[in-house]
Amino acid sequence: MHPRPPRRTTHTYRDLLAYDRWGSTGRPVLLLHGLGYDRSMWWPMAAELGDDLTAVAVDLPGHGQSPARRRCGIDELAEDLAMLIHGLGLRRAPVLIAHAEAAHVAGRFAAGYSTHRVITVGCDGPGRLDGVPSPYRQFAVRRPLPDAYQDWPADGLPRSNHPDAEDFPHLRDPAGFAALLHTLR
Fold this sequence. Notes:
about 180 residues; six-stranded mixed β-sheet
């Protein structure tokens, strides 16, 4: 019998950010979706992590269940994420995994706060679903971009630093991506 994946729980932090959490012990893994997506893009991979990591998948403002804001600056979002990590009592430096434009926020977070590692994915292409199994394609549906993000840099995204630099490596092989994260402890 295979072990059951940790149960996902959904929460809201100070009416600012909706997030899902798996696990309660171990190194925190903060999962950030790209613009136009939501936290559900991480569900298949996060369910594979097991109990020895604490995964937190956040909806950026105006995405998923997080309320929209008039303006969403990169600095403000990095600070909101730091407050979330602190508020959750996650005392170890997190691994940040950022998809596409969220790499800007992850970089800003890492510049100002203790961070174990930053992994960027999906920064090299237009969101191709090549190789993503059909059951997981539903987690990679891009929606219209909220107006609050119009001032974000349109270029200059860091290149993906995941060794398997396709657009959705966490959806092409959720168990393999989770196994990679286990090596980062």
